[in-house]
């Protein structure tokens, strides 16, 4: 192929022999005449003409207009909705997928919508997939968009309206007589063709359009594509909060939350910041007797990170602190933080990374009478579990009393006469007896250790406005860890749901029960123990609203949490997840699901149907308390 590099220097005379073309031109009739005529012709050719502008006068008021060339339709079925906008050249670089736009109606109402697609389309029919087009573009510094249309596909979210218009119409007043509240309703009308659209830059309009509450528990700032949404207000960012007032329905803390994120996604950082808001001094909830009580937070901590919430974060400077105060965000170490250390065998706990008070406790074997599955370490089948609960434990309790220890229980099972008696009477087959005995062994380092029983520490363990952390990092035996976490959480849940509780302190205190690595305890498994645990937590999730009990679950494997518990979760916070199964399991809308694997640390998606539309957020860059080890 010939080199096209010189196609811009084209010479009309090129290719003729001996200048014959020029001679022929010079002798043609059109070239004859006086010298003056030739000069006049030359002057005519070189005359400059004034260019006529095609730009309208005035200034642009938005970023484009609603167009109808490919249809304009709003329907109940979102798939049948066709809503597109032409974006002018000067605004094309500033729009992003996910950006929020406003399209006004002539009567003062406004359509709030979101960009779901961006497309370049040809203005005129032409084939630009050619060598000449490509080479010209490669040698040009700028991109000429004059021959292309830039079209945005829009998803209508809501219609915004001022309720003063409704009230004025009903009362006969004019709209100016009464400034109303901005409200939203489902999209029920189509915008006019050529309606000018603009980017949403008003905090009230955006919060109303997305149904974000003005007050509540702070989670982060609204973002699109990893960049914070900016407004003309001060501060320019838009805070996202969870409903926390009975005037707006049940506080969402008691309708349960899940934080899901992979390693390094900022999961613990974000969880600490949220829990710190529940521990704010002004946060209280009304109880049945009319008292306003601050919530108690109990956090199970397998990595020993949450006791640091007692201490201030040294990286928080004065300027950032002032910003937090302006936005009403609680920060700083929480003084009423206590680490309750489970005593397990000879395991020792080191706490050089925090200054919280430490209290040791043990699990008394007496708790097994109400929760027999605590000693079903390897899982019992239904027949074996029945033998344990209906024969062996009642007989042991009758013989040793309520204070019988684990050591006494194992001695009780070592009695060959008992085994023979139960077998001969047909109550427990000898093979079943042996199976039960094997499975309840191995908990000698868990029960009845040299520390105060947790049942004696309830008043200190559950404190209004206090944070109790139960670290298990120092325990190397996974069976022991499971037994401790499930024993303590069951104590709290049973007392919360009971109509005749043994511990009024638990019943009468709003409680946030946090569990990190929740997939280790709430997973689906083929054992009686797993089934009992799931049943207990499912009941807690269902009744949590009326009992002021909120589950706060944290996991990197949300797909492993049992569906019965997962279905009760109202607020799901999703940070970066790389596993496809994990992403699918959190059940967030597909447009946000596709962003999850690419989110940076601190970016999150919040799906809370009773609080707002699904949104993307950016968390705070600093932890509000101490975080990380030196």
TrEMBL record:
Residue spans of biased composition, Low complexity class: 17-43
Keyword line: ATP-binding, Nucleotide-binding
Region described as Disordered: 1-62, 164-195
Domain Helicase HerA central, chain residue ranges per copy: 251-373
Transcription regulation is among the record's keywords: no
Basic and acidic residues bias (residue ranges): 181-191
PANTHER family, A to Z: SLR6007 PROTEIN, UNCHARACTERIZED PROTEIN YJGR-RELATED
Protein name: ATP-binding protein
């Amino acid at each position: 192929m010939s080199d096209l590099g010189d196609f811009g220097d084209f010479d009309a005379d090129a290719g003729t022999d001996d200048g014959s073309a020029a001679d022929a031109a010079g002798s043609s009739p059109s070239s004859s005449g006086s010298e003056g005529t030739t000069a006049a012709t030359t002057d005519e050719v070189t005359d400059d003409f004034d260019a006529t502008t095609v730009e309208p006068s005035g200034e642009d008021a938005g970023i484009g207009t609603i167009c109808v060339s490919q249809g304009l339709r709003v329907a109940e079925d979102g798939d049948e909705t066709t809503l597109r906008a032409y974006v002018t050249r000067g605004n094309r670089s500033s729009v992003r997928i996910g950006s929020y736009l406003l399209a006004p109606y002539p009567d003062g109402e406004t359509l709030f919508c979101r960009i779901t697609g961006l497309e370049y389309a040809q203005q005129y029919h032409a084939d630009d997939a050619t060598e000449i087009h490509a080479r010209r573009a490669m040698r040009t510094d700028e991109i000429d968009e004059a021959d292309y249309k830039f079209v945005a596909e829009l998803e209508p979210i809501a219609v915004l309206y001022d309720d003063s218009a409704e009230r004025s119409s009903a009362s006969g007043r004019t709209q100016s007589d009464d400034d109303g509240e901005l409200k939203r309703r489902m999209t029920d009308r189509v915008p006019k063709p050529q309606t000018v659209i603009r980017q949403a830059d008003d905090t009230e309009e955006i919060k109303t359009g997305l149904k974000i509450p003005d007050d509540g528990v702070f989670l982060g700032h609204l973002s699109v594509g990893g960049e914070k949404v900016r407004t003309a207000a001060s501060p320019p960012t838009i805070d996202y909060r969870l409903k926390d007032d009975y005037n707006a329905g049940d506080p969402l803390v008691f309708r349960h939350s899940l934080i899901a994120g992979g390693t390094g996604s900022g999961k613990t950082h974000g969880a600490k910041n949220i829990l710190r808001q529940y521990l704010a001094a002004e946060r209280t909830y009304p109880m049945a007797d009319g008292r306003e009580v601050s919530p108690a937070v109990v956090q199970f901590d397998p990595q020993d990170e949450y006791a640091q919430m007692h201490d201030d974060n040294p990286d928080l400077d004065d300027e950032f602190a002032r910003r937090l105060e302006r936005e009403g965000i609680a920060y700083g170490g929480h003084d009423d933080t206590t680490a309750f250390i489970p005593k397990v065998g000879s395991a020792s706990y080191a706490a050089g990374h925090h200054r919280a008070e430490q209290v040791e406790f043990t699990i008394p074997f007496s708790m097994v009478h109400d929760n027999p599955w605590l000693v079903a370490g390897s899982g019992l089948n239904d027949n074996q579990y029945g033998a344990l609960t209906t024969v062996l434990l009642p007989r042991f309790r009758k013989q040793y009393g309520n204070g019988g220890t684990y050591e006494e229980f194992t001695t009780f099972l070592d009695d060959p006469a008992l085994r023979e008696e139960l077998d001969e009477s047909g109550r427990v087959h000898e093979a079943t007896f042996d199976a039960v005995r094997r499975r309840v062994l191995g908990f000698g380092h868990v029960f009845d250790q040299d520390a105060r029983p947790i049942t004696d520490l309830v008043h200190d363990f559950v404190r209004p406005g206090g944070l109790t952390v139960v670290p298990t990092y120092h325990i190397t035996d996974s069976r022991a860890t499971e037994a401790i976490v499930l024993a303590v959480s069951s104590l709290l849940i049973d007392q919360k749901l009971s109509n005749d509780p043994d511990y009024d302190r638990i019943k009468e205190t709003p409680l946030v029960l946090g569990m990190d690595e929740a997939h280790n305890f709430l997973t689906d498994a083929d054992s009686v123990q797993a089934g009992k645990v799931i049943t207990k937590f499912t009941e807690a999730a269902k009744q949590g609203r009326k009992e002021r009990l909120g589950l706060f679950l944290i996991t990197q494997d949300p797909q492993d949490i049992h569906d019965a518990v997962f279905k009760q979760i109202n607020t799901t916070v999703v940070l970066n997840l790389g596993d496809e199964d994990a992403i699918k399991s959190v059940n967030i809308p597909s447009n946000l699901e596709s962003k999850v694997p690419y989110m940076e640390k601190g970016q999150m998606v919040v799906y809370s149907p009773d609080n707002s539309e699904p949104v993307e957020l950016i968390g705070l860059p600093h932890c509000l308390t101490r975080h990380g080890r030196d």
